[in-house]
Design a protein that fits this description.
The complex is a heterodimer of chains A (1029) and B (502).
Chain A lengths: L1 H12 L9 E9 L10 E4 L5 E3 L5 E6 L6 E5 L6 E4 L5 E5 L9 E4 L2 E4 L7 E5 L1 H4 L17 E4 L10 E4 L12 E4 L2 E2 L12 E7 L2 H4 L10 E6 L7 E14 L9 H18 L4 H16 L30 H4 L4 E13 L3 E13 L6 E16 L2 E15 L11 H6 L43 H4 L4 E20 L2 E20 L12 E24 L3 E26 L10 E27 L3 E12 L8 E12 L4 H4 L4 E15 L11 E7 L2 E8 L8 E14 L4 E20 L8 E24 L3 E18 L4 E4 L2 E4 L6 E5 L1 E4 L6 E6 L6 E4 L7 E6 L4 E11 L2 E11 L2 E3 L52 E3 L2 E12 L2 H4 L6 E9 L3 E3 L21 E11 L1
Parallel strand pairs in A: 1-7, 13-16
Antiparallel strand pairs in A: 1-4, 2-3, 2-5, 5-6, 8-9, 10-15, 11-12, 13-14, 15-16, 17-18, 17-50, 18-19, 19-20, 20-21, 21-22, 22-23, 23-24, 24-25, 25-26, 26-27, 27-28, 28-29, 29-32, 30-31, 32-33, 33-34, 34-35, 35-43, 36-37, 38-42, 39-40, 40-41, 43-44, 44-47, 45-46, 47-48, 47-49, 48-50
Helix pairs in contact in A: 4-5
Chain B lengths: L1 H18 L12 E3 H4 L3 H17 L11 H8 L4 E3 L6 H4 L10 H23 L7 H25 L11 E4 L14 E3 H19 L15 H14 L3 H11 L23 E5 L12 H4 L11 E3 L1 H4 L12 E3 L9 E3 L14 E5 H14 L3 H15 L11 H13 L5 H7 L18 E5 L5 E5 L27 H6 L6
Antiparallel strand pairs in B: 2-6, 3-4, 5-9, 7-8, 10-11
Helix pairs in contact in B: 3-6, 3-7, 6-7, 7-8, 7-9, 8-9, 9-10, 10-13, 13-14, 13-15
The chains are: A mainly beta (1029), B mainly alpha (502).
Chain lengths: 1029, 502
Amino acid sequence: MLQRLLLIFLVVLGPLLGAAQTRTVTGTVFSAIDKAPLPGATVVVKGTTKGTATNAEGTFKLDVTDPSATTLVVSFIGMKPQEVAITTAPIRISLESASKEIDEVVVIAYGTGKKNSLTGSVSQIKGAELEDRQISSVSRGLQGQVAGVQSTAQSGQPGTDATIRIRGVGSINASSDPLYVVDGAPYTGSINAINPSDIESISVLKDAASSALYGSRGANGVIIITTKKGKGNGTNINARVSQGFSKRAVKDYAQVSTNDYFQMYWEALRNAGLTNGLSADAAAAYASSNVVSDLGINPYGTAYPTPVGLDGKIVPGAHPLWNDNWNNAMQRTGQRTQADVAISGTSDKARYYVSGGYLNDQGIYLGSGFKRYNVRTNLDLDAKKWLKVGINLAAAHSDQQAPPSEDSRSDNYVNYGRLMPSFYPIYQRNLTTGAYILDANGNKIFDYGAYRPSANNPNTNLVQTANIDLHNVNRDDVSARGFAEATIWDQLKFKTTYSADYTQRMTHDYTNPTLGFDAPIGGTVDRGSYRTFSWTFNNIFTYDKTFQEKHHISLLAGQEAYKYKFTFIDGNRSGFSLPGLTEPADASVLLGYTGYSDVFTLSSYLSRAEYDYKGKYFFSGSLRRDGSSRFSPSRRWGTFWSLGGSWKMTEENWLKSSKWLDLLTVRASYGAQGNDNLGSFYGYQALYVVNSNLGEGGTYRDTLANTNLKWETNLNLNVGVDWSMFNNRFGGTVEFFQRKSRDLLYQLPLAPSTGYPSIAQNIGALRNNGIDVTLRGVPVRTRDFQWSVDLNLTHYKNVVTSLPQKEIISGTKKLMVGHSIYDFYIREWAGVDPKTGAPLWYVTDPTTGNKTTTSNYSSGSLYYSGSALPDIYGGLTNTFTYRGISLSFLWAYSLGGKVLDQDYPQLMHTGNNPGRAWSEEMLNHWTPTNTNTNVPLLTTNNTNWTSTSTRFLYDASYARLKNVNLSYTLPKSLLDKAHLNTVTVYVTGENLITIYGHKGMDPEQAVAGVTYFRYPAIKSLSAGINLNF
Amino acid sequence: MKKNRYILTAILSVGLLASCSKSFLDQQPTNQVPEDQVFTTADNVETVINGTWAYAMETFFTYSVPGFTSILRASDAMGDDVAVTTKYGLRDAYTFVEMVDNTKNRVSAYWTILYKVIDNANSIIANVDKATGDDAQKARLKGQAYALRGWCYLTLASFYQFNPIVDPNAKAVPIYLTPTTPTTKGNPRATIKQVYDQAIADLLAAEPLVTGYNRGDASKKYKIDLNVVEGLLARAYLQTQQWTLAQQKAAAARNGYPLMAGADYLKGFSDVSNVEWIWGHPQTPNQSNASYNFHFLDVSDPGSYYYSFMADPFFKNYFDNGDVRTQLFDWDTLPSQEGYLRYKKFRFRDQTALIGDLVLMRTAEMVLIQAEAYARSGDAGNAALKLNELRSARGAYQYVQNTGSLIDTIMIERRKELWGEGFSLSDILRTNGTVVRKAFTSYTGGDSIIQVPRADGTFKAVKAKGHRTLRFPDGTVFTPQSKYYLFAIPLSEVQNNPSLNN
């Protein structure tokens, strides 16, 4: 691929070689403060107007025809101009800040602003920081990068998104997901359809002042993704190729050997026999006699028909004839290939960016993967002096292979191998010798295990059928953003924007008619279509003016409408006429066909006013009104607002002269935002579900009405300070925040005897208090070497402050004033009874308060058992650069909090699920001689010991080397002849190191702290090359 | 120039104002319907009966709880004659660790199904009179709603408390007679006698309202008609020891439904068109969730996933030679189930679509109710007559009066005839009895080796397997009135109904 690209470039550009008779000066312009390349810096020959500007990578190439010229002048707005001598060797120019601060332009709601002039809290990530990351969804790139952003990538399935929480959890049942805005409009397409290479910047809006303008949907923060635009002079071509490999990030739970398994299962049978009243001898005989028949196979061969003796030990001489690892057989080394090309530039009245991308991210489990094809065109035109128009068009097609891996289905591809112990052969074996049985062609034959117990999926072999069956998700995303902006008078502008996102997701699940799970019914096929189309239409007036060079005002007012339509159809059939056919037309029995559509609308009016005095004092206010179709007509309108102010103290005379302090700003904001998303679009109505019975129409009562249902409101306070010192070598931001949510949208549990599990209500209030800290520094900076450090951390506390009743128990949590919504409320493990080996839980007598133990799980009391929320989380980045070499490490960490492992207990049964694999920890089970243990005695009776309790609650603290990147930018001297601007080669790794205590589980889990059958996270190692010319 | 921009702005402004119509924010679902539209006409109310029925029968909670009829599976798993294997499904009910435990999914699933049906029935009873349409249809719909509600309360009474003969004032389950509103709070547990009284009152209210209703051909056997109501009343009276009424209602229920021919007994109990079925739930390829019950019941079809309802080998001894039912016994020699005694009573009707109709009530049960009611009220002659009516239909020996206990004989005949149909635990509870399970071992206490004849004329020696759980999980022996027999009230009810124990 790479060679081909280079070849094309050389053919195209070859004739130009050697044409230059003049001196060609090349170089790169950096900002001295952060070593970031400066695009758009001006480079001119001193004393002339002849010059150029740096491109997006900060590089320039200038042909100097005047032989007498000796000096270049390099300048950039806000920087001190610098003079350098003309040489033919590449020049590196580092510009110092003119003022003492560097002010970054950041993307904010409905516009842009200067970071140090904002009253609100905004963090921005540059696209460059994501470019080399081996991530298939942008949402995965935020972890550890931004203070206040809690990101967990729960699934290793390629193409899946991470869960994002900004500054705590603002809702209980209503959605806590942030709003994604792409190029100015709320985005309802697939996050994984956006090519990270196309991203210019990602802004995270964290407080009211920055996000209240998105009022109705900004309650959980806003993530603004801005794609690249054409800039600089001329045309710039950028090509990137990378290739990588992936494996499981952490090893799966360790399992017992075949010998141990058989001895332990014997013990379980013997103990159950004793419970049934058998004598010790009779129980032992019963156990020896039933081990093989219960497990279905004798891996010791027919020579040992009773491999476990009456003493519970493997009989002398017997040894397993095979040891198969299903977990490994279900996995492979995944491969990842990515290639992107982008062409961008400007002409007199147009700026353009055109790109194409290809990604093939193969999963580590058989039959999983993600392929994506992207194109994007971003075009801005100055149509008239007073009229600007632009359109961004992006299209993506993706093919995802997504086998069941995140649910309790028996054909879950991850569980399938994990739960299958070593003594079930993958390929058919001779039961006397253990040798493979071969077919007529000498090939091994897959063993479908009709003899296996139900825990081991008899009559299936996913190792084979994973390559035959289909679990495909094909997705087409088209996203369009079009605008026209007219200057009406002076600084009064009118901008109208129409944005549309279209997603068509087509699923195709096929199980073959001859082998495995659905062979008895001749195979099945399911095709589902999920279409979403949403548009946003907004019309906004803006006015921006400075009076008397002191008073600067900026006003905004407008209207916005949003409509979302979802259409779903799904049909399934079974009974394929012929093998090899996979579509519904090929199957004979119609099993079902269904479909429906949903519409959700929002109508909004918004306004904002900003004022600053001499760039010193800043004030902002915003007001927005939203009507939502999710609420009844009398309750659907909500009003949201914000106020903010900041004071740039370093602009005051008494600080301006400070030698070491470059920037000091204090900021504060307060405001209200809304949340209407309780999951249902029609939550206020009493509704009957429409079903049918044997061809006759049916309905039944499903939801209770609550016409008083209204907006959930978030009141956000943000107080922050930004500073920068010692020539901007050290700096940071510290922010205190308080998020108060009231009228929480909640599915209030009802007594199920009323016929309803819950009713939608606005209940109570909760509060998130916290602090975000971002620190950056350059401890070492010499001519060639630099070490820079970026650290961010967030701490927050989540507390319920009001409830309509004393307590609400829901799942593994209990809501109560003074506690977090993610405080576990579960049974407390009291260990194993040393006398009997029975599992014990604590029970508190409600009248006396005495705490005792019980071996009866359901009579154990529920206790508060710690919170799922971490105490501190964040990221640490160290970057070392030496000339063209750069090495960076990004550690993401999360300290404190608990996680309830619900996957592990599957491997911790006491023998009540014969044939299911056993974890190594089960070796430590109770016996009369091993009484001091945390694992109870084995028995084929279910003792409930694996039921939810603090026994399986683990410390969730972890640190993960999220990304490590080593790159080398080739020296200019090597590149000139190829007419290349820059060439960077790199090696990058994701998730290479995980530091975590509970082995077998991946520490990145759901925010609520409960694991549930998931595709394990992956680690990957990749190498790539970036070319720019 | 300036003019242009004003014109453009004006056009856009008009456009945006036009787009803001009032109805923009009024949106309705397409797969749900607002309540006020449901009770407009009798035909619309008919959909609530149908929809509620489909909900009850077809709702999956987990694969081991495929709808209402899985309650019947639990009843048999907790009895004497089904030796449930270690396969997925009912194994924990069988070992008495599941239904006693209020945290279990099965416990909350049964409760949820029953009370969902009760609320929908309440809604029909309260609102059907307001609907327009044929009065006869409205009356019949109300009758069917009463019957549904009575059936649910009868089911609750059967499993959630000991029979009133133990203690009529023991607290059982809450009673609701009006549709739930947003302000409804949980009701307290009523006494077991009140719950039975409510069930009988509802069924009696239904009786006149469904009289004269003709539901149509066999494919409509899921609809409640007079025979079904009479059959439910017969059960209710039997459970409350009202023998004469039980006998009368059973006789009325079986009216028009003759006992099936012996050969039909071998056809798999999965076809609603069986002449003996009074009430059943048909299945089709596209309505087949309830069929999942057959994956536990069907022990011979290769498509059956779990085939876990094996017969206790002692159960075979109750049958006489020549009894058509004995033909269903077959010792298993397949690798994963070797040594189990299959009782091949239940088989998928369609083995490629894996569907089978569910039986809910049939004549043999009514005949046995008649026999038992006569016997318990002292009319041994009529009791023997009814018992022998069934025995002749099955090709079994006739009962000769005064040979052994008549009542015991009838109770054993119930187990033989109704195996797998859901009466085991409810019969133990209504008779204040106990579970009886014995290990199937040789006389020395070792393995019991059975020589199984195979189709090719050879014999295979297999280790016979019977009951694997012979005691309660705490190691105590089976006794009457054990807490392990009762279905627990789910934890979510305990947590969210403060009045529950008032």
